[in-house]
Design goal:
By secondary structure, the protein is an all-alpha fold. 76% of the residues lie in helices and 2% in strands. It is built from eleven helices and two strands; from the N terminus they run H-H-H-H-H-H-E-E-H-H-H-H-H. Helix 3 (44-68) packs parallel to helix 10 (233-256), helix 7 (166-183) packs antiparallel against helix 8 and helix 8 packs antiparallel against helix 9.
Length: 288
């Protein structure tokens, strides 16, 4: 494939990933990593590094727009980011060790699938039990003033909500950071279900807040990959530009999609990514 056409194809992959990622608070890593590996035969470490760089771009492009709409829960986001940043650094450092083994790449790919399926389960459980179920009271949330208010939207009045299960949310945030550093997926795969399904944050505010958090988490992991020389500009640059463009589309779609619709879209994307990556690893198709 000619270089210009290849760069255009990677750019378009970034646009689709940025639109989906900013709409769902994922950052697009669930599209970028499988896309680069499956369709462009990019080595897994380089795909993860490019994904982390693009997630920073997605976060920058979408968080400011969500902030203007009042959908960012800054206090909760920065509180949980302590866990995700530590997890991101840990995950990125572990990747080099995992890839030293002969089956390291397959281990990473299967881990990607496990993360996606488990996060999908959290969302499916949330859908089964209803649109929004308040969590039990949590003194830690009271102490840190983590409760918030969902702003008025489409004729609906503003709705205050109470946050609960803070310890569980913080633990899942660390797992989200670990997955981000290991797999280049931004951590939104776990952050959104943690905030929405576990802590009781409305899904629209959870996805918006995750869009801000993923940039910080991805930066922590990307620095480790940069030091190891895995950030290849020829791949990372078009992906980052594409995700930045796509993030503007995603924030518009976010406003037009219902909360239940967001959950179902998120669920389908997670399962599709898990299936594609696991199938290639299990079938033994060679990796670049």
């Amino acid at each position: 494939m000619p270089l210009a056409l290849l760069l255009l194809a990677i750019l378009l992959l970034g646009v689709s990933a940025g639109a989906l990622g900013s709409m769902l608070g994922l950052g697009g890593g669930l599209v970028i990593v499988p896309g680069l590996v499956l369709f462009f035969d990019v080595p897994v470490p380089l795909a993860i590094a490019a994904s982390l760089v693009s997630i920073i771009a997605t976060s920058a492009g979408s968080a400011s727009r969500y902030a203007a709409k009042g959908l960012l829960h800054l206090r909760l986001g920065f509180f949980l980011e302590v866990g995700t940043a530590l997890g991101g650094l840990t995950g990125a450092a572990l990747t080099a060790s995992v890839l030293q083994s002969g089956t390291g790449t397959k281990v990473l790919v299967l881990a990607f699938s496990v993360v996606a399926v488990s996060a999908a389960y959290l969302l499916y459980r949330d859908l089964r039990r209803g649109e929004f179920v308040p969590p039990p009271p949590d003194p830690l949330a009271d102490r840190w003033r983590l409760h918030g208010t969902l702003p008025a939207d489409s004729g609906q009045p503003a709705r205050p909500f109470r946050v609960g299960r803070v310890r569980e949310g913080l633990a899942l945030s660390f797992v989200a950071g670990l997955a981000s550093g290991l797999l280049g997926i931004g951590g939104g795969t776990y952050k959104v279900p943690a905030m929405s399904g576990v802590m009781g944050v409305p899904i629209k505010m959870a996805t918006a807040t995750s869009s801000l958090m993923i940039g910080v988490t991805a930066t922590a992991g990307a620095l480790v990959y940069l030091v190891h020389g895995d950030v290849l500009p020829l791949i990372a640059a078009p992906v980052a530009v594409g995700t930045l463009l796509g993030s503007h589309v995603g924030t518009s779609l976010h406003a037009r999609t219902t909360s239940v619709g967001l959950r179902w879209i998120f669920l389908v994307v997670l399962m599709a990514a898990a299936f594609l990556m696991a199938a290639r690893a299990i079938l033994g198709v060679p990796w670049a």
